[in-house]
Amino acid sequence: MISTQRQFFELPDDETYLNAAYMTPTPMVVAEAGEKGIRQKMNPTSIGKEAFFSTPDEVRSLFSQLINNPEPNRIALFPSVSYGMANVVKNIKPGYGNEVLIVEDQFPSAVFPWHQPDSHHNVKTIPLPDLYKNRGERLTDSIIDAIRDQTAAVCIGTVLWTDGTRYHLKRIAEKCQQHGTLLILDGTQSIGALKFDLQEIKPDALICAGYKWLMGPYGMTVGYFGPAFDEGNPIEENWINRQNSKDFTRLTQYEEKYGPNAQRYNSGQYSNFIHIAMLRKSLELILEWKVDIIQGYCDYLTAELFDTITKSKSYWIEKDPNYRSSHIVGIHLLKTELKEKLERTFADKNIHVSMRSDCVRVSPHLYNTKKDMYQFMDVILGLDS
After folding, report:
1. What is the pTM for the complete model shown?
2. Residue 376: CB partners within 8 Å, gap ≥ 6?
3. Chain-wide mean pLDDT for the chain?
């Protein structure tokens, strides 16, 4: 098993950072890539026209390796998940039906785009099951049972962002395929820390922000768009998402045709020489470490936490390992008065976690150690009664 990789990060020794789901700290080599990009921009004579395309193409290739996508041209680059979702929503034709399924407490960026005044979509929210046996399995079953012929799309995360609940994506995907329903995934809270195989799940779109588990900069997002979106109209018209955009001598010929596959969905200025260099380096680092190893290390860090919390009368945690994540652990509070006490104690002890919905969200990474987990557990168990 890999040992801690804390040497790649500049984290204060007196801070316990268990909040990667909020944002990961920037690895030093990723920061250096950004600094190199800044220096390059200080002298534009070093920026040739190939710089607008070469590094973005490398990012498409690296992200494709991460998710097992054989077609890098299906990867678009833009600033946010909501930007990618807006392109998805705009290009779902009425023939798919008018019902869209989302999940209660889903992250807003995958919810708001569906709620447009002129939208023909009827958004149906799948409620979260009670905190009892087989909660994760029951949530998957509720989604599957709700899919029908008039369901245009299922839009969910690859995990539930508030507590790391895992869906059985394969079963959901198969039900979508049976009814001609599009599967739209927000991969922000798992891609880079939990294995995802595009060829197995076959989503129609997968959008993933870069600043969390991809360890990249804020303001860079990658998105896979499948064949269902090949002839769509992007939300933004710019020069770089057109055919022949690499030929700067022809830009004033105003090419109407878009680039191949998902290249029509690129945002303007996606070549950002600072951010794109950082994202390339962070993806290289993840591929070097390997996602299975990252998740395995998180398994190692959280094993005792799972064993301890399952016996508690003050907290609830998903017991089924098939429906929970080790990189995001959601500890639900069964006593509301615990929230304020926990927040105050975490702040006093410089322990960084997130309070999301009714739970404490703990999200470790390779820079953490067992000592970090024990410090967190001391607080949790100290208030358990």
Report:
1. 0.96
2. 16, 18, 305, 351, 353, 362
3. 95
